[in-house]
Amino acid sequence: MTDLTSLSATTLATRLANGETTAVEVMTAHLDRIDAVNPAVNAIIELQPRADLLAEAKAADAAPRKGWLHGLPFAVKNLVDVQGLPTTSGSPIFAGYVAPKDDLLAARLRAAGAIFIGKTNTPEFGLGSHSFNPVHGTTLNPYDLTRTAGGSSGGAAAALAARLVPVADGSDTMGSLRNPAAFCNIYGFRPSFGLIPGDPVGETFLNQISTEGPMARNVEDIARLLQVMAGPEPGFPHFRPTEPFADDLDTDPKGARIGWLADWGGAYPMEPGILALCESALGTFTALGAHVEPVAPPMPATQLWDSWMALRGFANAGTKAALYNDPKTRALLKPEMIWEIERGMALTAAEVWTASVIRSQWFATLATLFETYDALVLPAAQVWPFPADWRYPETINGQPMDTYHRWMEVVIPPSLVGLPALAIPAGFGANGLPMGMQLFGPRGADRAILRLGQAYHRATDWPERRPPGL
Fold first, then answer.
1. What is the per-residue pLDDT across 159-215, written as a single tens digit (0 to 9) for each?
2. Looking at the domain assignment, is residue 469 inside a domain?
């Protein structure tokens, strides 16, 4: 009998639509898998009662199909409100909070037929690429239970790798989709900014660095979930038009021009073996007929970092100021959040302006570069999955990291200007740990990047190499 948890979301959706299996069978298989594996991994939190979920699955079997996710179990990242489920954001400030209504993303997933089984774990408020917090504990890497799964979408990445869910949502500011995807041997897609709109509340014009995105074990599932998550929201000022992302996904990459940025001329320190593994993986594109060549650093990495730090601090100070200003809630904030807020509050208007000018220059530089290249590639991480009892890597090859997130600086080039970036598995190092690359293109080239990713996946399918012992 086929193990339903081993099937892709696309295959499960097709079988459900054709009556080859039932939502009750799919739900039962995944809940059994969660019962067996999740205690070791801690990827799924706030799991809802089995009886309630099976009742929802039975109702889905009896109802007309709503959409692509109809009858599929879905665990939403614990930064997104789902009506009736807790949303703690990993913070003791919100322990016990139950969402009164769906956020926009959850509403779209629900409308497509998803059955919400619980949440996926994150670091507190999504800060840092290591999913630990004082409310729900630490998510571990399915490929090595002594190591981190990354973050902030670490719970989603680990749940996918461990076959606890068929598909997942994530979000990405600095690299929260791409870093855990690399650490857990799956795919994660940061779409062009605005393709998946945010809720039209609070500040929606100035901060253009964070977005939600799909995660999966193959590119077709990424494309189909993106179709569910994307689409205009009248109150969101930056939304982009959608495309049929999953249509004609299988295309020939022959002749595609791909630029390899490596370690940015030595600006990004890398642990041994990462660059060599990525260069080997790039050989897949060469074998498929693409032209891959090295690219010199297009702009000083220090400028991108300075711009990023100012704009990130500006955003965090704005969104979390109320928690900081109240002494009771400030006492419960993690040190990294306090550091982010205080740094943002110290910024002058001139410093924010200068940061945005650098960002604008970087966007224009890339526009010229993309006249030559269809896509650019960087490693998706600078370190291998590190020990889970670390707070963050303090050095790389003996070089001290001057912030809690400097060790993941390599993800900034696409994030700073809102480009579509697909994290693709690059394989495994001599240490047995996964690593990945980020394949990115001009804003709006989401479909083209997914097509390149699909060709690569067809030739490699690294996620089929499952975690040992699970």
1. 999 999 999 999 999 999 999 999 999 999 999 999 999 999 999 999 999 999 999
2. no
CATH of the domain at 340: 3.90.1300.10
Reading across the β-sheet that carries 73-77, which strands appear in turn? Answer: 44-45, 115-120, 73-77
Confidence tier at 29 by pLDDT (50, 70, 90): very high
Into how many domains does the chain fold?
Answer: 1
Positions of E strands within 78-167: 115-120, 132-133, 137-138, 140-141, 144-148
Contact 135, 42 (CB under 8 A): no
For residue 127, is it left (φ>0), alpha (ψ between -120 and 50) or beta? beta
Mean pLDDT confidence for 71-81: 98
Catalytic residue among 91, 129, 152, 307: 152
Angle, in degrees to the nearest 10, between helices 219-229 and 446-460 = 150
Spatial neighbors of 46 by CB under 8 A, at least 6 apart, are: 78, 85, 86, 118, 119
Mean pLDDT computed over every residue of the chain: 97
Q: pTM for this one?
A: 0.98
Q: Treating both helix axes as pointing N-terminal to C-terminal, what angle do 446-460 and 274-287 enclose, rounded to 10 degrees?
A: 100
Q: Are 330 and 344 in contact (CB under 8 A)?
A: no
Domain of residue 392 covers 4-464
Rounded distance, CA 190 to CA 184, Å?
A: 16
Residue 61 lies in a domain: yes
Catalytic hit among 77, 119, 320, 334: 77
| Active-site residue, 176 included | yes
Identify the active-site residue in 91, 176, 192, 307: 176
| Residue 339 buriedness (CB in 10 A; 0-12 / 13-18 / 19+) | middle
470 falls within a domain:
no
Return contacts of 83-87, CB within 8 angstroms, 24+ apart.
85/46, 85/48, 85/116, 85/118, 85/119, 86/46, 86/119, 87/119
- Look at the block and give the residue holding tokens 């998706």: 380
- Rounded Cα distance between 286 and 292, Å, is 6
Contact between residue 70 and residue 113 where contact means Cβ atoms under 8 Å apart: yes
Q: How far from the centroid of its chain's Cα atoms is residue 339's Cα? A: 24
pLDDT at 469 over 90: no
- 89 an active-site residue? no
Question: How far lies 60's CA from each of 26, 54, 67, 224, in Å?
Answer: 11, 10, 11, 20
Residue 226 resides in a domain: yes
